[in-house]
Design a protein that fits this description.
The structure is a single chain. The longest helix has 24 residues. Helix 1 packs across helix 5 and helix 2 packs across helix 3. 44% of the residues are buried. The protein is 40% helix and 16% strand. The radius of gyration is 18 Å and the shape is elongated. The chain starts with 12 loop residues before the first strand and ends in a 12-residue tail after the last helix. It is of the alpha/beta class and 208 residues long.
């Protein structure tokens, strides 16, 4: 697949946003926001679900080295409080805010002028059909993670970082098998919850 920076008329920057972890019964939802430089090695990108775990992890390292990015988690307690859709959108807003904290310095390093370094020059592409409500122009695109390299990059960061934290939870709560299913509703996950009760990171508003 051949990609380049997504160019939107009238905007100097395009950022992509995506989340990972809407479907699981446990753990946080993860979101990322990415702006890619023009010299990025685009050939490493794809929808995160189409990459092997090894390829995702390799790509995540390169994205974090070469691109401008932000990331955020929203934990299981907040998910129960506001529901998974709102938690996913909150995670995206927080990931965008994390990215914006590094935006000016990165844009200057890429040769952009001061009059371009403003959120009014950012066009955000969000995977899905809901907009999180960002302080820039935004567009929700169904299956955006299969169409735009910026969204692909965001999907990779969100997925890799969520998988890593679920491995940490597996070490804390090995009886729940989080290393294997990452909190998704597999028969084994549902069965252990029925047998032992919910783990400390369970989403209690979800059915088992």
């Amino acid at each position: 697949m051949t990609f380049a920076v997504t160019s939107i008329d009238g905007f100097a920057f395009t950022c992509g946003l995506d989340e990972a972890g809407r479907g699981p019964l446990a753990g946080p939802v993860s979101a990322a926001c990415v702006i890619l430089p023009s010299d990025f090695p685009f050939e490493i990108l794809n929808d995160s679900k189409k990459l092997s775990e090894k390829k995702r992890e390799e790509a995540e390292k390169i994205i974090c080295q070469k691109a401008l990015w932000g990331h955020a988690f929203v934990d299981h307690k907040k998910i129960d409080e506001i529901n998974i859709l709102q938690a996913s959108l909150l995670a995206m807003r927080n990931a965008y805010s994390d990215m914006i904290g590094k935006f000016s310095a990165w844009a200057r390093s890429q040769g952009f002028s001061d009059d371009q370094i403003t959120e009014k020059e950012i066009y955000a592409l969000i995977d899905g059909n809901k907009k999180p409500g960002l302080p820039c122009m935004e567009e929700a695109v169904v299956k955006g993670d299969a169409k735009f390299p910026e969204v692909m990059a965001a999907s990779i960061i969100a997925k890799v970082r969520r998988d890593k934290i679920m491995l940490e939870y597996d070490r804390l709560y090995p009886e729940y098998g989080y290393a294997g299913h990452k909190g998704y509703p597999t028969p084994a996950h549902k069965e252990i919850c029925r047998k032992l009760g919910p783990s400390p990171i369970q989403r209690l508003s979800f059915k088992y």
